């Protein structure tokens, strides 16, 4: 039989909860610094783990609440609930807008951007909304976002959406003249009435639809005319040009597309720019791909001709509206257009409602409209740290270089450089020089990070290689990027669709990510519906069982040891009870955990139907105490890997059942915990009733409690915070022995070391 003990100690838990399949790979770095389970703990800069922070209740709203800054000193919370948006200051509602198309189930699809004193809100299928703030006040106003009109020109983006090769021919050119529209194939539908098209860069408003190829329009900008040209060229022009060719006046600069060749000296064309008076020659030369056509002899103005040079509004009630927006470089940006999924539009410089890209005469401050390559659907555009922008698509992520040498300009080049494969429709967040995002398969947390190289300055890094089991349909990312006065660690928060969180401990060096975060799992009595951060403030919106007021907005609070924490006898103003109701009026007939005098653990109390706490008349109970705190507790679990002995002389050290003969932990700031042994097999079928079912993997099959209070302590006072070492001798053998520490009492606990003696 094998002899001896394997004595191990683990003091580094920075890798968090890692893939349990690493359990036989003792040389892997994540094995040495990871835990098999790490639930509701947080990693410390010292590499230990501590019971996670609690959350302070603020008000009822949501299920999505975010903090925004409109100007220095003017911080508001933006609250999205079913069919409405509310804006609060210090918890009090200062603005509400209703009748909006989202539901409580899809508020995660809302994308907003702040441009100076305006909040632009986008949502799939909705015309964007524009909330305007009156600076220095709590006054807001909401309106439909729409582009401006200058003269008769609608300043909206245009793009050829219909199939290529289809021609359009208006019947006349006059300004505000009603013209017939003839397409060579089906384009028109009745829903297009009221929308705009452009014929050779000039706008026409569709006023009626007869069928797919015929309709009526109102000319908003005088159209270019057709033209019949007769030259005095001694050479047959049919040998120099062909229909579709564009010829340019060498003197006038006018452009004419040849529509048909009538004779050796005559052709019919369509002006694309410039004008010619009807009559005799002007001394101009027409130069085309085949050569010069000599001096024109005469030309005659004709109605506009059928050409393929026309395009359509990118966004309207028929084509749909952008589902995403951003603000950067003194421009408002829009993307995720239903009609042009690859399109990205930047407004004119300093003018968020001017999105028009002229067909000619561009200036640098004009609007910009570009397409991401590869038939991508653009989800989000995010501004980087060095002025660059990053485009997150379903099948790729691109970097757009923007700097002093290459500013974002309508007359410059917008270049899409591919960095990585696609992303999920979860809004990325900027964090410490990196951008955190979710990959397209929604099973990885990744980051766009600077490399320092000149030719390839950015790269994508996997941040969750051994933590993918913690990602369950991610829906939101929060990256607090400010200094909290009560702790120095940095964390990123990934919200899962099941209401749990994957929380990553981030090691920062020289202002950037030093290594991949170690993620742990956070759960609680309620399901988190949204998480957001600004500076050091982290907001959670949580649905608690039995709540009559919907979701609760909470903030991360290092001074709290429970979620939904409130001072029972000093409630937040926004949670004041109605007349005749108790302090927990919003959770009638629900259980609640009480703390008094700091950390005096009073246990679970019941709330009556009116929200009053039902007394239990235990020693020292005082439900009117100014320090009485109510909330919801959680259970924290830390399970280390139990290492196997290394290879060596054959004593069957890795081939037989083993036993943890002694488990120890060095801890501080403890208010009690539980040593447990977890069932690890073999799994057998349950026995038929009335026999008890057999244990399943992970079930607790043995325990030893380290109590909060010991003999001599006054249990009516705050629990003492203890430091020391505790030991336990669990029983049982297994090929894969499992032991853990469970924190199932309210209060702090910091684990600095796990030690074990394991039979070999």
Computed over alpha carbons, the radius of gyration is 35 Å
Give the helix proportion (percent range). under 10%
In round numbers, the mean pLDDT is 92
Strand order of the largest sheet: 18-31-21-22-23-20-19
Q: In what range is the share of β-strand residues?
A: 35-45%
Question: Based on CA inertia axes, which overall geometry fits?
Answer: elongated
The total beta strand count reads 63
Please provide a written account of the structure:
The protein has 760 residues and is mainly β. Among the domains are: 5-42 and 636-759, no CATH class; 158-222; 226-302; 561-632, no CATH class. 1% of the residues lie in helices and 44% in strands. It has a seven-stranded antiparallel β-sheet with strand order 18-31-21-22-23-20-19, with no helix packed on it. Strands 1, 5, 6, 58, 61 and 63 form a six-stranded antiparallel β-sheet that branches. The protein has a six-stranded antiparallel beta barrel with strand order 24-27-26-25-29-30. Strand 2 (16-17), helix 1 and strand 3 (34-35) form a beta-alpha-beta unit. The longest helix has 5 residues, at 29-33. The radius of gyration is 35 Å and the shape is elongated. The model has no long low-confidence stretch (mean pLDDT 92).
Properties at a glance:
7-stranded antiparallel beta sheet; 6-stranded antiparallel beta sheet; mainly beta; single chain; 760 residues; 63 strands; 1 helix; elongated
């Amino acid at each position: 039989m094998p002899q001896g003990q394997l004595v191990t100690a683990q003091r580094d838990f920075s890798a968090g909860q890692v893939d349990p399949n690493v359990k036989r790979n003792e040389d892997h770095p994540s094995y040495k610094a990871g835990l098999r389970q790490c639930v509701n703990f947080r990693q410390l800069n010292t590499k230990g783990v501590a019971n996670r922070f609690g959350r302070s209740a603020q008000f009822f709203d949501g299920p999505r609440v975010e903090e925004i800054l409109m100007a220095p000193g003017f911080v508001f919370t933006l609250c999205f609930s079913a069919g409405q948006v509310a804006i609060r200051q210090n918890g009090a509602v200062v603005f509400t807008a209703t009748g909006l198309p989202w539901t409580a189930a899809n508020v995660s699809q809302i994308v907003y951007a702040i441009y100076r004193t305006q909040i632009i809100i986008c949502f799939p299928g909705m015309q964007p909304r524009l909330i305007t703030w009156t600076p220095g006040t709590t006054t807001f106003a909401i309106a439909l976002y729409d582009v401006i009109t200058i003269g008769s020109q609608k300043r909206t983006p245009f793009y050829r959406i219909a199939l290529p090769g289809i021609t359009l021919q208006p019947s006349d050119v006059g300004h505000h003249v009603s013209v017939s529209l003839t397409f060579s194939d089906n384009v028109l539908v009745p829903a297009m009435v009221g929308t705009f098209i452009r014929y050779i860069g000039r706008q026409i408003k569709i006023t009626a639809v007869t069928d797919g190829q015929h309709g009526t329009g109102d000319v908003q900008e005088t159209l270019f005319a057709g033209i019949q040209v007769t030259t005095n060229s001694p050479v047959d022009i049919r040998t120099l040009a062909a229909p579709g060719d564009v010829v340019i006046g060498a003197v006038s600069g006018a452009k004419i597309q040849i529509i048909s060749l009538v004779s050796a000296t005559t052709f019919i064309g369509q002006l694309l720019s410039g004008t010619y008076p009807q009559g005799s020659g002007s001394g101009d030369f027409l130069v085309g791909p085949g050569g010069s056509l000599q001096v024109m002899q005469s030309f005659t103005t004709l109605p506009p001709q059928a050409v393929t040079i026309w395009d359509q509004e990118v966004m309207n009630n028929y084509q749909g509206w952008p589902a995403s927006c951003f603000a950067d470089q003194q421009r408002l940006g829009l993307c995720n257009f239903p009609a042009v999924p690859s399109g990205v539009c930047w407004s004119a410089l300093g003018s968020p409602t001017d999105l028009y890209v002229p067909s000619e005469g561009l200036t640098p401050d004009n609007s910009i409209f570009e397409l991401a390559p590869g038939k991508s659907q653009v989800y989000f555009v995010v501004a980087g740290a060095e002025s660059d922008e990053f485009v997150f698509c379903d099948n790729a992520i691109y970097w757009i270089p923007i700097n002093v040498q290459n500013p974002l300009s309508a007359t410059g080049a917008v270049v899409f450089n591919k960095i990585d494969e696609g992303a999920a429709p979860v809004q990325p967040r900027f964090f410490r020089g990196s951008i955190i995002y979710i990959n397209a398969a929604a099973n990885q947390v990744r980051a766009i990070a600077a490399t320092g190289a000149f030719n390839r300055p950015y790269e994508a890094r996997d941040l969750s290689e051994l933590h993918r089991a913690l990602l369950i349909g991610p829906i939101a990312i929060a990256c607090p990027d400010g200094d909290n006065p009560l702790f120095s660690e940095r964390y990123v928060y990934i919200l899962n669709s099941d209401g749990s969180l994957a929380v990553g401990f981030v090691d920062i060096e020289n202002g950037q990510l030093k290594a991949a975060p170690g993620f742990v799992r956070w759960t609680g009595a309620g399901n988190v519906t949204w998480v957001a951060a600004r500076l050091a403030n982290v907001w959670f919106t949580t649905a608690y069982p039995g709540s009559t007021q919907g979701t609760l907005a909470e903030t991360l609070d290092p001074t709290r040891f429970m979620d939904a924490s409130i001072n029972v006898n000093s409630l937040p103003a926004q949670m004041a009870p109605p007349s005749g109701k108790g302090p927990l009026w919003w959770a009638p007939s629900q259980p609640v955990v009480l703390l008094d005098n700091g950390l005096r653990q009073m246990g679970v109390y019941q709330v009556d139907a009116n929200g009053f706490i039902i007394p239990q008349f235990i020693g020292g109970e005082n439900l009117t105490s100014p320090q009485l705190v109510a909330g919801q507790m959680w259970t924290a679990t830390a399970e280390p890997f139990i290492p196997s002995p290394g290879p060596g002389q054959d004593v069957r050290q890795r081939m037989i059942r083993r036993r943890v003969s002694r488990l120890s932990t060095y801890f501080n700031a403890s208010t009690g915990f539980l040593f447990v042994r977890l069932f690890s097999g073999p799994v057998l079928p349950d026995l038929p009733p009335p026999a008890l079912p057999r244990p399943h993997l992970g079930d607790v099959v043995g325990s030893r409690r380290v109590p909060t209070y010991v003999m001599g302590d006054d249990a009516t006072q705050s629990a003492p915070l203890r430091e020391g070492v505790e030991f336990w001798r669990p029983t049982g053998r297994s090929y894969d022995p499992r032991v853990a520490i469970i924190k199932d009492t309210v209060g702090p606990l910091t684990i600095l070391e796990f030690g074990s003696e394991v039979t070999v």
